[in-house]
Write a structure and sequence with these properties.
Blueprint lengths: L12 H25 L5 H22 L11 H24 L2 H8 L2 H13 L5 H18 L7 H4 L3 H20 L5 H23 L11 H7 L9 H25 L2 H8 L2 H13 L5 H33 L1
Length: 325
Amino acid sequence: MANMDTLPAQNSAAVGISFMLVTVLAFSVNDVLIKQLSGGYPLHEMVFIRSVIGLLFSLPIVYLEGGFHLLKTRRIGMLLLQGCFLVCANLLFFMAIAMLPLAEATALFFIAPLLITLLSVPLLGERVGLFRLGAVLVGFVGVVIMLRPWEGGGVEGRWVLLLPLLAAVSYALRQIMTRRLGLLIKASVLAVYIQLAFLLVSLAFFIFAGDGRYAVGTEDPMLKFLLREWIWPVGNDVYLFGLLGLCSGIAGYSVSKAYSSADAAVLAPFEYLGMPLAILFGWMFWSELPDTTGSIGIVLIVAGGLLVFLREQQLSRRTSRTKRV
């Protein structure tokens, strides 16, 4: 029986793009639900419940794609380590969207592809030309504009803007690790291990702070979100948590399926559809719209990321033509 760790990636742009569109929508709805529920429930509770439901969603797909024996692999430690990088990225981003306008947090997180480009030089030994370095610079100018260091007041609140940036760093490191190891496994198997990593981290938070003792007396909304007491969902929140878990399961599977079906250069631009969705949902549910300065920063970050992907796609085509010759 073939080892699933060495499965060849399928190459179907249509399939990959379809799964990427599902991924973007699922993640966007997930972010809305996290932000909506953040005022009454601790982060570790939301992560735990969404992961349990996501795991229940993923396990049957593993069975349908070949059986539970696929979960047995010599790379469990590496899979969990990748999952932990992703967990850190998600937790930091979830804290960000609880404190920031949805569009602003999403735009700052989209610096991740630019970080991947920069980190690929020292960590992977890749060469990055002036075009891509220029695109990275454009994106970082957008970040500086959104951070607004020239403003004298409100510094205490602006430090929260670092959360999505730290999330982007963690996500970039996870992607670099994946590139370096060349991991190719079933999408459903990867989704299961990602959910397990979320479960382990959320359980650790619950054991440490699940009774809310560390949140007593604090007025900091960030600490309250992290450390408040576990409260079982009530009323309509039960359905919101169910939808949150379903989105987690769908997104975990579909993103892995997308990238195993088509080249990253084809799929990556479609990830940026999450930006207009974030603006739309922020306006629909919380009447949030970026101001002029924020809009300029968003445009520059998105432009920098898309320019990087465009250049990588051009270089990939040149390499392919050279090999054929």
